[in-house]
Amino acid sequence: MTFTNRIRQLGFGVLLLLLCPIALALVAIPDLSHRVTDLTATLTQQQISALENKLAAIEAKQGSQLAVLIVSTTQPEAIEQYSIRVAEAWKIGRKKIDDGVILIAAKDDRKLRIEVGYGLEGAIPDAIAKRVISETITPYFKAGDFAGGIDAGVMQLAQLIAGESLPPPTAQNRNTQQDDGRFMLILIAGVLAGWFLSAIFGRTLGGAFAALGSGTIAGLILGFGFSIIMGLIVFFIVGIHQSSGRGWSSGGFGGGGFGGGGS
């Protein structure tokens, strides 16, 4: 190794040491557990609930997902850099549609930012996002009405989204809910039938009969993939763990990729 290479490596190491404290000092990204996340206790619980309900109604009607984040500061980052990290972590919006929007307010910094998914950049370009902030939200904030400003901004964003041609949410959501409901009904019926059959044929054989029957029904109603899953679950509950007293529940929340920017 030449002397020059050693100097370069030493310099790179020193640079990393200098950058580490900065990286450690970055404001953490909160978990996405609600549509409204207020880390400053600026909004009352009633105001948060009202905003949550409006955002849920927008998603149910239009499909697009909107989220609000209030932090004290984004320093040492500019709000633009912080909002990109939030968008990459939260990934709101429908998959392959990318119709998520995040409104971020840094209260102590007096900064606002609207991050817009790629699928909504036509409806909410940077120039429009700036106008929503400057003309709609900021006047409320200057008057000390943070809830009113966020509410007004959210409603204007909803109007802009409504003018964009996006896939409707109703058919997909309805099909998913129907499939979930049918799956649970078949599962419950299969387990009950399995317990009855196990009393006649024994646990293993009764579980096998119940798994075969419920799997066949699931395949006819929901598709072949559900048939295999249903059969395995019923057999596991009835044929293997009937006497263990164990159970489980599962669920999930899906979202699409997120990208783009606002101002």
Notable characteristics:
4 strands; alpha/beta; disordered N terminus; 263 residues
Question: What would your notes on this structure say?
Answer:
This protein is an alpha/beta fold and 263 residues long. The chain contains 8 helices and 4 strands. It has helices at residues 3-24, 45-62, 79-90, 126-142, 146-162, 170-201, 203-222, 224-240; strands spanning 36-38, 65-71, 100-106, 111-116. The chain has a 4-stranded mixed β-sheet with strand order 1-2-3-4, sandwiched between helices. Helix 3 (79-90) links the parallel strand 2 (65-71) and strand 3 (100-106). Helix 2 (45-62) packs parallel to helix 5, helix 4 packs antiparallel against helix 5 and helix 6 packs parallel to helix 8. The longest helix is centred in the last third of the chain and has 32 residues, at 170-201. The two termini are 48 Å apart. Mean pLDDT is 77; it is low at 1-24, 170-176 and 242-261.
Write the layout of secondary structure elements.
Layout: H1 3-24, E1 36-38, H2 45-62, E2 65-71, H3 79-90, E3 100-106, E4 111-116, H4 126-142, H5 146-162, H6 170-201, H7 203-222, H8 224-240
Parallel strand pairs: 1-2, 2-3
Antiparallel strand pairs: 3-4
Helix pairs in contact: 2-5, 4-5, 6-7, 6-8, 7-8
Low-confidence sequence ranges = 1-24, 170-176, 242-261
Strand content: 5-15%
Strand order of the largest sheet: 1-2-3-4
Topology as a string of helices (H) and strands (E): HEHEHEEHHHHH
Name the average pLDDT. Answer: 77
**Total beta-strand segments:** 4
The secondary-structure class comes to alpha/beta
Radius of gyration: 26 Å
Shape: elongated
Q: So how many helices?
A: 8
- Report helical residue fraction: 55-70%
Roughly how many Å apart are the termini?
48 Å
Reported for the largest beta sheet, the result is: 4 strands, mixed
